[in-house]
Amino acid sequence: MFILDCTGSMGSWITASKDEITSIIEYVRTQNYGIQIRVSIIAYRDIRDTKRFEVLPFTEETALPKKFLAGLEADGGDDGPEDIAGGF
């Protein structure tokens, strides 16, 4: 499971994180031939944001995590407390 802060202030870091998460998933797959892995991604924002969470439930489908990550954008983050606990 990957948990990602997607508040507005994280804009430049989100792109790097999406690339790194994709690389980690591919590395695990290529280094463990034949292994079935399940990936989940949780994007969280501030407690008061209307789009507080975006969730990709655990999946073995290889294309879904990359597609989900491509749709994530920095949003919200009006300096309210981030919902880190909610992400977990």
Overall geometry: elongated
**What number is the mean pLDDT?**
90
Helix/strand order: EHEEHH
Helical element count? Answer: 3
What's the N-to-C terminus distance? 10 Å
Descriptive key words:
three-stranded mixed beta sheet; 3 helices; 88 residues; alpha+beta; single chain; 19% strand; elongated
Could you walk me through the main structural features you see in this protein, from its secondary elements to its overall organization?
The structure is a single chain. The chain has helices at residues 11-31, 64-70, 84-87; strands at 2-5, 39-44, 53-59. The protein is of the alpha+beta class. The chain has one domain (2-87). The chain has a three-stranded mixed sheet with strand order 1-2-3. Helix content is 36%, strand content 19%. Strand 1 (2-5), helix 1 (11-31) and strand 2 (39-44) form a beta-alpha-beta unit.
